[in-house]
Amino acid sequence: MMERHFDENLQALKYQLMKMSALAEVMISDAIKAVVDRNEEVIPAVYEREELVNQMQVEIDETCLTQIALHQPAAGDLRFIMGAAKANADLERLADEAINIVKRAKTLLTEPPLKPFIIIPEMAMIARGMVRDSLHAFVNRNANLAREVMFRDDRLDALKTAIAAELTDCMTMESSAVSRALNLLLVSRYLERIGDHATNIAEISIFVVEGRDVRHHADRKP
Amino acid sequence: MMERHFDENLQALKYQLMKMSALAEVMISDAIKAVVDRNEEVIPAVYEREELVNQMQVEIDETCLTQIALHQPAAGDLRFIMGAAKANADLERLADEAINIVKRAKTLLTEPPLKPFIIIPEMAMIARGMVRDSLHAFVNRNANLAREVMFRDDRLDALKTAIAAELTDCMTMESSAVSRALNLLLVSRYLERIGDHATNIAEISIFVVEGRDVRHHADRKP
Questions:
Q1: Cα–Cα distance between A92 and A106 in angstroms, integer?
Q2: Per the structure, how many domains does chain B have?
Q3: Can you give the C-alpha Rg of chain A in angstroms?
Q4: Neighbours of A3 (CB within 10 A)
Q5: Residue B142, Ramachandran bin (φ over 0: left; ψ between -120 and 50: alpha; else beta)
Q6: Is pLDDT above 90 for A187?
Q7: Per-residue pLDDT for B174 more than 50?
Q8: Is B173 on the interface with A (CB under 8 A)?
Q9: Closest Cα to residue A64, out of A83, A43, A49?
Q10: With an 8 Å Cβ cutoff, is A64 touching chain B?
């Protein structure tokens, strides 16, 4: 009976994490809509979802502590719950990056658009996908998917470098572009951070499944 | 006997975290020396210390898991160990920011200095102090010190805003300054991140001591 109860609680924990991830994913999409489509109307919802994410973070931490204290789980489940507590922290922080993007969007909306957006929408799509799939990898204990997520981070880094070069040129050539280019550069950095957090969650997933640490190793690619 | 053994292991865990924090603090100072004093010679040591920090992170996580699995600690100690695992993640990531600063320093050293440094050294001093004191607050279960650390983050944010305005002006007025100003702006953002991680550790400390969550509350100031 105790056993069954613990399994149900683990399922509930997974469900909470998936829900938090879904909220964060929508926050990222909406934040980018504010930048790329110049859509101000989505902004309040991003702040509302952040409130929910913050509440969920506190609840998930509480769940993790309670489950360990009450059920004294064995090695595999203990690793999973410790991993959930860490993934929880990464989810909350990547949701914060959506708020950072919205703040830049507000400033960008006070000026005419700088130029058509090509790299930022692609970065946003990759970052959001990494969030979704890193969480899937975690709750489904899928190490292959986790490795695949980590691989995508290289593409995100390459795009970040490309857009930095482009925006630096833009600022050098046209002084009236400085403020807008700078804000867009920060947006690209926030998207890169989201990718970093998803990579952390992917690393945690591999540790939970395989019991070995893939952080700080060169051989982590699929 | 088991009891004594567990207390000794907790002491060892605290010692590991303090050692990791000390490494990170030196990394921050050296990274800023590379930027402000244009001292290239300190750079290799920053990378060497990062290797040590990465190793320690894996060891500390292992210690946390083992202590929970073997000793099934009661509520207060369990919170402390879960907190140690989280503080561990923040320490590793703030040490990474020192590496990010060094990368910017390398680019900055290829050009003549832009102007005298005033804000960045102050930001670095505050950030380093926040790291040291957040760890002290954690291992000594000192919630007052933790609150004081969180308070200092406001000063860091104000300095970040001030230097962003200064560097944006600089880029707008002088196109040859764009690349250097941008790199310095990123250095200031990395220092801000270090302060954010120290704030996280301070929040963890308060949770461990008081068993209540001070994240996401407006009343967290001392």
A1: 22
A2: 1
A3: 19
A4: 8
A5: beta
A6: yes
A7: yes
A8: yes
A9: A83
A10: yes
The crossing angle, in degrees rounded to 10, of helices B178-210 and B2-36 is 160
How confident is residue A222, by pLDDT bands cut at 50, 70 and 90? very low
Amino acid making up residue B40: E
Burial class (CB in 10 A: 0-12, 13-18, 19+), B62: exposed
Give the global pTM. Answer: 0.93
CATH number, domain of B150, equals 1.20.58.220
**Where do we find the tokens 């990056």?**
A97
Q: Which residues from chain A sit within 8 angstroms of residue B214, using beta carbons? A: none
- B175: contact with A, CB 8 A cutoff: yes
What is the CB neighbour count within 10 angstroms for residue A6? 16
Residue with tokens 């957006």: A117
**Tens of pLDDT, residues B65-87:** 999 999 989 888 999 999 999 99
- Tokens for B145, please give them: 């010190």
Please, are residues B141 and B84 in contact by the beta-carbon 8 Å criterion?
A: no
Residue B32 to residue B98: CA distance in whole angstroms: 8
**Could you tell me if residue A112 is left (phi over 0), alpha (psi between -120 and 50 degrees) or otherwise beta?**
beta
Of B168, B173, B176, which is closest to A182 when you measure between CB atoms? B168
Q: What does the pLDDT look like over A31-67, one tens digit per residue?
A: 999 999 999 999 999 999 999 999 999 999 999 999 9
ipTM: 0.90
DSSP annotation string for B136-197? HHHHTT-HHHHHHHHHHHHHHHHHHHHHHHHHHHHHHH-GGGHHHHHHHHHHHHHHHHHHHH
Report yes or no: A86 at the B interface, CB cutoff 8 Å: yes
Are the Cβ atoms of A182 and B189 closer than 8 angstroms? Answer: no
**B chain contacts of residue A182, beta-carbon cutoff 8 Å:** 168, 171, 182, 185
pLDDT in tens, A80-116: 999 999 999 999 999 999 999 999 999 999 999 998 8
Rg, C-alpha atoms of chain B:
19
Structural domain that includes position B25: 2-220
Sort out which chain A residues have CB atoms less than 8 A from B185's CB and list them: 182
The percent of residues in chain A predicted with pLDDT above 70, rounded, is 94
Residues of B in contact with A168 (CB under 8 A): 178-179, 182
pLDDT for position B222: 43
Q: What is the DSSP letter of A216?
A: T
